[in-house]
Amino acid sequence: MPAILRLAIAFAERWRLQFVALKETALVLKLAGLAFISFVAALSGALMPGPVLAVTLAGSRRKGFWFGPLVVLGHGIVELPLVVLIYWGLREAIRSDAIAITVGCIGSVAMAWMAVGMLRQTRHVDDPEAKQGGVLRLGAVPAGAVTSLLNPYWYLWWGTIGAGIISDARVAGWLGLIVFFTGHISGDLGWYSLISFGVSRGQRYLQGRLYKGLLIGCALILLAMAGLFARLSVQKGWDALVG
After folding, report:
1. Based on the structure, what is the number of domains in the chain?
2. What CA–CA distance (Å, rounded) separates 147 from 167?
3. How far apart are CA 164 and CA 162, in angstroms?
4. What are the pLDDT digits (tens) for 35-55?
């Protein structure tokens, strides 16, 4: 083989390897950015007061730190199939009026029921032998799953913010989806673990009126959310009926 040809082949191979390295670097940077965005976006959902936060607060005081991470495990068990379905194109189905009305009505009743249960707990906040009420009787993992499924905001978040990020993750295929879900569940785990740690370690301070006020505050937030989603569901149902 002529020397000039060998030189040309070596030069071309060098540039090919550099191009591959650049593509791999770009992919790594893209995946790192996706993980960061997923983590931050997860906090936008986790920081929203709702059933999962309420059950984490109540359960961590009785069961300790690990109640929070186990709630997130239950949350993730029902969330992962939803993520895969959205990846396969379920976004429009989640945003349909029929789903919104059904989930809104059922979720409103469930959140009101949880709120009433929390208000009942305020009557015996200082009794360690008192029976657990509501979804707390199911255990941490089932409680995380049930409170997620019965939260209308959960579906709203996944039909908008979550679905948008998943759409961006599709560029990297299944690897992008894995990175997205890992970043997302890490955000949930970090936030609820922090809440659980604070509540479990601060049990001596969360007594009497302070804990009672916390329960009442969570219950009022749940009632407000129940009323909001009930009103939106009725309005959507009425618009669909007359439209």
Report:
1. 1
2. 26
3. 5
4. 888 898 888 778 777 888 888
